[in-house]
Design brief:
Length: 245
Amino acid sequence: MKYLSLFLVAALTIVTIGCQTSESHDEGMEDHAAESGNENHEGEHEWMSLFDGESMDQWRGYKQEEMPEGWIIDDGAMYASIPAGGMDIVTRETFTSFAFEFEWKVEENGNSGVMWHVDEAAGDYPWMTGPEYQLLDDAGFNDGMIGKNSAASDYDVTAPSEAVTRPAMEWNQARIVVDGANVQHWLNGVMVVEYDKNSDDHQARVAASKWKDYATYGTTSTGHIAIQGDHGAVWFKELRIKRLD
């Protein structure tokens, strides 16, 4: 009986320790998931650099085979130096669901934008298919007031929830997440726009915007990332993307 009792105590101790270890591991995973948000989803793929400060090989002109001559590399940044027609550029690859991060700055009164799901076969300009993350010197427009054309807006559709853009010629950190129909706009660490592309609310906003007469706008589900280069001097660096599909 003495040895049987010792055996039972030892077995019970092992089971107890095992349960505690398992619970600690599970709690740690839950904490990590809560802290990282959708990072677990994003972790299924590797980040891909779209500009390393030295080469623009991942890009080409919209409906062109090469980069427009007006785009140059300026101190490690992609720079649209001659804003004019034919300066819009697109990624050579296409993307469906993704997280896209980049830094940007514009000159005083500067204006540009980043679009996605762009289909070159559907129109003469990227904005004819791709929704736009607006880039703007907010202080130079609308008396600095927030509107649906402010920096980080879903351009002319949904205004950012708050103003977190930095002054002209200061770098801003942007993040665009497109996960199926869900879209998020982040600016300087703050999520300022979120919408479901297929929702009644979003469709009503589009119908009340300048895009109401463009039947192809927002209808594509995959395509190129595009950058507007014909609205003023704009700089980009640290561009990287991660597929979510």
